[in-house]
Every structure is written in C-alpha cells, then in structure tokens.
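Curious: why these numbers?
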Amino acid sequence: METCSFKETEAYSVCARLTQNNKKVLVVASAGNTARAFAKVCSDNNIPLLLSVPEDNMNALWFHKRLKDCVKIIAAPHGADYYDAIALGDIACKSDMFMAEGGAKNIARRDGMGTTLLNAVETIGRIPDAYFQAIGSGTGTIAAWENNLRLIEDGRFGKHKMKLLPSQNAPFTIMYDSWKAQQRTLVALSAEEARYQAAIIQAKVLSNRKPPYSLAGGLFDALTDSNGDIYKIDNREIDYWSAAFQYLEGIDINPAAAVAVASLAHAVEDGTVKRKDILMLNITGGGENLTKNHHNVVYAKPDLVLNPNDPEQEIIKKVEALFK
C-alpha cells in the first residue's frame, strides 16, 4: 500500500461505491492517514475530493507524486483538532455541490477495512481468538466485528467470536474512560481539553472526540458482544514498542500501530490472552521511513485554512470556489 496505511482498503471500496453519474464532490474529514489514502485514490482516478484536516496534521499528507487538481484540501487552523476538521466538512456539505463520505456509517468504509480480517482468516484458516488494533474512531474494530459475524454465518472458519481488544493513546482516552465506567454514553470531554490531549499524544490519528461508540452497532455494542476490553498506552510505551517492532520484524511502524503492539504486551502480561491463543494484530500503518528512504515524497499544502467558527456562508462560498 503506497500510503503505508490500511486506510487504503476503505478508500478504494468507498470510491468504487460512487455511481458513474455522480456529480457531487466527495467530502472526507481526517486526522491524517484516511486523508492520505483518499487523496491518493481520488487523484489517481480523477475523482473530485474535498479533504478537511487539522492544519497541525498536514505533515501526514505526503505522496509519491503531486496530487491532481481534482483533490482540494481545507484545514482547520493551528491548535484545532480532528473534530474541528469534521465540523468544517459538515459545513461544506450544506452546499449542494458536496456529499459527505459518511464515516463509520458508510458500509463501504467498514467493508473495506474488514478485508484485513478476511485476509487473516484466509491465511490462518480460522477465526482468531483475539483481535488487537489502535482506535481513533473505532470503525476498524467495528468492521472486524461485523465480518466476524459473517464468518460465523459462513461456518467454514469457526463459530466463535474473537475478543476485541482495541487501544487508545493516553491521555486521549475518551472511549477507554467510557468503557471502564461501564457506560454506553461517552464521558464528558470539553473541546479545550480534547485539543490539549490531541496535542500531547504521539498517535495524532487516534484523536476523535465524537467516535461511533454509543450508537447501535457501534463500538460499545461490539465490545459487549465480543466480551472485549480497551487498553490505554502512553507515549513512552509507543517509543519502546516502535523500536522493539523494528528490531524484531525489520520494519518501522506508525505510532498508532505501536499502540496496538503495546496493548498486546499488556494482554499477555495480565492473562487476557493465553499462549495457545490465535491472535490477530492489526499493524494499521508501517513502512513510512522505508518508503521515504526510497522515494522523494511530496508534501501537500492546504488550499485554504478556515476557522469552523466563521460564518457558514462565508466558508461555503470559499470552498465552492475551489471547484469552479
């Protein structure tokens, strides 16, 4: 995967679901990896795309070649977080020119990311006993759960539910805190505190303060149904397990993937998983250092930096002008 992120799996499936007569511009809000994946896929296939990202995360938008003009980028200003980028995208979608990608509610996104589990099951020959992944929204873990249920219905690879064991980067742990409080509703997290926490964590992509946790079929239901749990991992552990994975497996991994590796270590230590268990560890992104050593990558710049608190009509007018 050229973008070094499993988010490419969802970008291809979402774009493939667009109808041939679609005239609207697809809008995707992202903290980084999803934006890079959609930008690459849409640029390569001449699909109009509006990306909305936090300006502080623009360093995640690197590519092997310059993006085509069909892809435009708007950014929430310095100090803003992923939710501010979502707010900007939502404002743009009030124009008839644009169409929201849909996030976790888009079945194509979940089915795309779910192919990671399908591939693992094909390779292993059975449904794993436990599944590890770092989460920002939790959509990838929801996708794994949905495909686990499909595999059970299919019957050829087992009839059991794997234990879902996602993880977050402390101190941005809104889903961890909510789950440990044994509640479906998300714990209170102010915009100011969320931005502060997002600025601290290494895994910037794991900073969604409005994730699909509470809704029916969301992460709370997935964890409950699978008898799962959530771990929290600090920056120090990310540094350790990034280095350990590089040494043991010979490839660099993204900070979010190191969060998942660290959670696996915790699960082994606390006995959540046993030595005989078959485990799936989703290394959601890796090889960035390797690809940058072999390619002269190009960094994208925002076409507009917009404050989501500005008048909506002004924002809409400026964003529409990018595609005229």
In short: Residues 83 and 210 are 7 Å apart (CA to CA). The chain has two domains: 8-101+296-321, 108-286. DSSP finds twelve helices and eleven strands in the chain.
